[in-house]
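Translate sequence into C-alpha cells.
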Amino acid sequence: MLHQRYREVRQYTCQLCRPLKIEDYIPQPVEFASPPKWHLAHTTWFFEQMVLLPYCPDYTLYDRDFNYLFNSYYNNVGDRIVRTHRGSITRPGVEEVYAYRKYVDGAMEQLLSQPLDEDLSALIVLGLHHEQQHQELLITDLKYALGDNPIFPVYREDFNLLARAGRDSGRLPIAEGVYEVGFAEEGFCYDNELGRHKVYLEACTVDKGLVTNGEYLEFMAAGAYEKFDYWLDEGWSWVNRESIRAPLYWHRIDGEWHHYTLAGLQPVDPEGILGHVSFYEAAAYAEWRGRRLPTEFEWEVAAPDMEWGQRWEWTNSAYLPYPRFNKAPGAVGEYNGKFMVNQMVLRGASIATSPGHSRSTYRNFFHPDARWQYTGIRLAQ
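Result follows.
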C-alpha cells in the first residue's frame, strides 16, 4: 500500500512537469516562487536526507553539494543556499535532477520492499504529503513565472483552473455554543492540527458559496481600492506601496478585464469564483459588504455542511499553536511550529491541491499580502 502510494505521488510530480520547455525549469522571478527544477530536487532531497541517510546504513549519498543546494529551511540538516538564489542554480542541469530522482527512488523502492516499523512508515507518509504540498507550489510558482511573461504563454490548454464552477447559495447558521475543533480521526495530519480542544462560538452565519468575480468587480467599480475606510492600515499601505488595483493576474485590455490562467489569457468570467486575492483584499471586501471573514473555527464547524476545495479561503484567524502543541525533535519539528508568527490561516483546499491532500482540519498559512496561491473569499456575519 505505502509502496504504491510512493510511486503515485512521485510520478505525479513528474507528470506536472511534462508540458514544460527546458527553459521553464529555471526562472525565479520573485523570492517566494521557486523554480520547477528546485521543487523536483527538493522533494527528492527530503527522502534522501530524512529517510535514506538515517535509516539505510549502506546508502551512498548521490552528491554532497545537493544538501546545500536543495535544503529549504531545515537548520538541523545544515547550511543552505539563500532562497532568492534558487533560480541561479543552472547546474546541476534538469537531466541530472531527474537522474537524482531516479537514484533516490531506486533506493526508496528497496527500502519500501522491506517490513517497516511504525515510526519509519509515518516519516515516509509525511514525506509524501510534503511532496504533495510542493506539487501545488510547483503549479502556483510556475504560474507566477509564466504570468510574468508578457506573451502569456500556455502551460496546457486544458489547465485553466479558474474556469466556472458550481456555487451554492444561502447561508449556514452556526448556533451559539461550545464546539470541539482539531484533528481526531484515523490517518495522517500535520502536527499543527493536533491538540483537539473546545472553543466557544457566538451565533453566526457562514456563506455556503465563495465570492465570484462579478461580485468582486462591483467592489472594484465602487472605487474601493481608492478608499482607505475599507482597509486595514497595513493593507492600505500595501495597496498604495504596490499600486494594487485588481487581483493578481488581472489585466485591463480594450476596456475589458482579462486574467492570466495556465491555459493562457482568458476573459474574466463574472460567474467564476474569485481567485488570487490577499488577506488584505479579502478583509477590505468583507468590510465593504458589511460582513466579515469567518474565523478558522467557524469555518471548521461549518465545513461538513458546505462545499469547499475550489480556493484556499482566508480566515480571520492568526496562525498560532493549538493547546498542547508540541514540536517534534530534530528537523521534522521545523515543519510548522517555527512559522507561527505574522501569518493568517487559510482553510479548505484549492483546485490546484493534489488529490488526497485536503482535510477540514488542515491549517494552511501565508502572510497577509500573499496572492499567488489560488486564494478566495467566503463571508460570515
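Note: The chain has two domains: 2-147, 171-376.
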